[in-house]
Write a structure and sequence with these properties.
Structural class: mainly alpha
Strand content: under 5%
CATH superfamily of the largest domain: AhpD-like
Order of helices and strands: HHHHHHHHH
CATH class of the largest domain: Mainly Alpha
Helix content: 55-70%
Radius of gyration: 17 Å
Number of domains: 2
CATH topology of the largest domain: AhpD-like
Number of strands: 0
Length: about 200
């Protein structure tokens, strides 16, 4: 059950048809989040445009970026982003067992040392104020290189924007992956959606 604080608006017009076609092709449905953001088209266009651009970046390993985004979504409590990112990880052929364990990564032994450092970095960036240390950055620079670290950091920053926007507006999971097992800390799994992604 959705608790959008701003009701979705009907997506209409030529641009609306393009958005719907894109969403259907990418996700199999048109997320209610698009309807909520349809109230301010420049914001929706900017978010969609930047999202498409960042999916073209290739300096950093796709798994590390996905795990980092899931870590941010779990920490902030964005069920929509957890749901969508698990769905996207599945479509990219990433390790879904690991993706499911990201919210409890400290209790898991599924992650190698680099992955643990990336998850810690994502959480440190997500704190207010951020708790990133010189040592964290130096270690990740040595292992990833400057270009990949800048990309990873930008992905985490984008995750902050989307997770906090969705959470503030009451945008919740829509069933992209109801059986995924991912959930923000303290959020009942029933709120992760009702439609199974097959």
């Amino acid at each position: 059950m959705s608790s959008n604080r701003i009701p979705p608006k009907q997506i209409t017009g030529l641009y609306g048809a393009i958005v719907k076609m894109f969403a259907q092709r990418m996700f199999g449905l048109v997320p209610k989040a698009f309807g909520v953001l349809w109230h301010n088209l420049p914001v929706l266009k900017a978010q969609m445009g930047f999202s498409q651009k960042l999916h073209q970046w290739r300096a950093c390993d796709e798994s590390l970026k996905s795990y980092a985004h899931i870590a941010v979504a779990s920490l902030v409590g964005c069920s929509f982003c957890l749901d969508l990112n698990y769905f996207m990880a599945r479509n990219k052929g990433l390790d879904l067992d690991k993706a499911q364990q990201v919210p409890q990564w400290r209790q898991s032994n599924a992650f190698n040392l680099l992955e643990q450092e990336v998850l810690e970095y994502a959480e440190a960036m997500s704190q207010t104020p951020p708790r990133v240390t010189d040592e964290m950055v130096a270690s990740l620079r040595a292992q990833l290189g400057d270009s990949a670290l800048i990309e990873l950091t930008s992905i985490i920053g984008f995750a902050q924007m989307t997770t906090r926007t969705n959470t503030a507006l009451g945008i919740e999971a829509e069933g992209f992956s109801a059986a995924c097992g991912l959930k923000p800390k303290g959020l009942p799994s029933a709120q992760l959606g009702v439609v199974s992604a097959s």
